[in-house]
Design brief:
Elements lengths: L1 E4 L4 H13 L4 E4 L9 H4 L7 E3 L5 E3 L1 H8 L13 H28 L8 H24 L10 H16 L10 H10 L3 H4 L5
Parallel strand pairs: 1-2
Antiparallel strand pairs: 1-3, 3-4
Length: 201
């Protein structure tokens, strides 16, 4: 199994953590979709990472789809509940965490543009998305239902990868203000070997 992606991508990190937690052997191919010589479009026509080449040669792309595929494989720790309704609730929180990540990535890309070309209205909009998403995740984490429970699941991983990216890119330095449950959650998860091994360089 091969995982195509970038060490700094939070979406790739989510899949890397999942593979490590499930004990699935894989080779990591570091390939940034932004590089001039990138091979990513050969694996994903959308030119995005991650892309996963399964042992049978089939290629999977888009991190939620890859995550769903990995949880269908035999063996390893399940990261989605067996009950379909419970699994759907976890997937909803994965989508919320990925949406926070999307907003953070949008802010990073916009800030890379020349100052006079940056769209302030777009920046304000993405900050609003990010903060509303984090507020909602704080509430879910505090409820200990589908997130921040006794058993690690896909929602936990997605949230930790989103917050790890926010910290890495320093998108919202004050995100932790009045969000103590999320702080405690990521501090606990970042101690796991799977997260330590996938920390962005």
């Amino acid at each position: 199994m091969k995982l195509i992606g970038s060490y700094t991508s939070p979406y790739v990190r989510k899949i890397s953590v999942m593979l490590l937690e499930k004990g699935i052997d894989f080779d990591f191919v570091n390939d940034s979709p932004w590089a001039d010589d990138t091979q990513v479009p050969h694996f994903n026509p959308l030119g995005k990472v991650p892309a996963l080449i399964a042992d049978d040669g089939e290629i999977w792309f888009d991190s939620p789809v890859i995550a769903a595929y990995l949880d269908t494989l035999p063996g390893g720790t399940p990261l989605l509940p067996a009950d379909p309704a419970a699994a759907l609730r976890v997937r909803r929180l994965e989508a919320l965490a990925d949406g926070v990540t999307d907003a953070a990535v949008a802010l990073v890309l916009e800030k890379r543009r020349e100052a006079d070309k940056q769209d302030e209205a777009w920046i304000v909009r993405q900050r609003g998305v990010l903060n509303r998403g984090l507020d909602a995740l704080e509430q879910y984490a505090a409820s200990h239902r589908d997130l921040n429970g006794e058993t690690l699941n896909l929602a936990d991983i997605a949230v930790a990868c989103a917050l790890g990216y926010i910290n890495f890119r320093r998108v919202a330095p004050n995100w932790c203000v009045e969000r103590p449950t999320l702080i405690a959650l990521v501090e606990r998860l970042f101690q796991r070997e799977s997260f330590a091994r996938t920390t962005p360089p």
